[in-house]
Sequence to fold (476 residues):
Amino acid sequence: MAMRMWASSTANALKISCASKAPFALPRCFSTVLDGLKYAPSHEWVKHEGSVATVGITDHAQDHLGEVVFVELPELGVSVSKGSSFGAVESVKATSDINSPVSGEVVEVNSKLTESPGIINSSPYEEGWMIKVKPSTPTELDTLMGSKEYTKFCEEQDASH
Amino acid sequence: MVLAGWASWSFDFNSLNLDALKYRTQLKKPKLPLLTLPNSYISTRGNRPMTIRNNITVPLMNLIKLGGTPILQQLHLEEKLLRTSSLNWCIVNDGTNVPTVVMGMSGVPAELLELEPVIRDKVPVIRRFTGGGTVIVDHETIFVTFICNKDDLPSVQPYPRPIMDWSGLVYKEVFNGIGDFHLRENDYVLGNRKFGGNAQSITKNRWVHHTSFLWNYDVRNMAYLKLPSRVPEYRSARNHVDFVCRMKEHISRSTFIERTVEAIGSYFSVEPIKLETIGTQNIVFTPSTRLLSKEELSAAFGSQIENSCSERVLS
Fold:
């Protein structure tokens, strides 16, 4: 357990994403968790900057989902609610709901994901962002997990299965 | 050949009374398919009905058996139960009434279908709410669907691979001693031949895993489908006839259905229920699964011809 946390912290500090296909990959891959973001238990991240919150899915989520082949996103101006679905991704014959960590209005949608849904796998925290929301209740962010809490959450989830 | 008309189904799914069903299963003692204890009783975990079997709490699963129900109607029922019910469901539909093409959520008709014969023969084309590929189903297809609360299968993470692996265990039990069953990549195979297409939809707390099993099929219907661009590695460039097999060569319909229900009984306490007894209530739900219109298919055919002409010009 200690080795796993050390490796996770090191990977996190180096902003390394452990690719499961890498020849040097450990049998259990450690997903990247970035500082400065907030995390939902349904494995979405949110970055709050000024009046806009950017939302995507975490490295843990994209790793467990597999190759994303299609993304369904909302239209501009649509209202989203904390904990409710705003879209879906398709991977390995499955559609999986994506839930918004915050309530508010969608002010921007990542149109690149239509042509290149795999960006979510290769860059879940940067180019793979999904929507930008103008939060209606910014205090909702306080209920989300920080990076350390989310790292522990993921480890506990994976260990229990 | 298929001469089906354009279907417009009008089953009133707003009439399903799911809350009434919840109370029914909470109050009634279950008929346990396996060992039954004299003191077995219904309890609840959260809002989910449970029963006790050998001192272990086992979640309930409602079993709906259908026969020849239109696949669009079945998919609407599944989507509604996934999104608006908190109960576990197993739906078995023994065949559908007319041959129908069913695409996954992201399916593009121009890429997946031979649209000229589809339009000529008026084959219904559905886009379903789950992922995955395209199938053509008919009265010889057997459909099996599991709709589960993730917390009622705590050892199964709510992601595609773990759900698929769990379903593989269920069907391994079904085919135990009958056929060389495997889960190969994402397909169910007997030997190295696929006999069923499966797909999933996963929400925050629930998921559906459904399969269309090829108990038998008309090879002429395969002519409506193009060879998909994404194929599993184990297909090894085989054509459709060499890649798939008929389940009827291994097991009868009734035995397959019986053994599937029995296998599910290892994980749930299965409670048969008739669809018409669920009752009525105003639950408004708009499914995303839908029948594609003639206009949409014609437009897709137009783009298919354009692309074909462009390829000829470039080559």
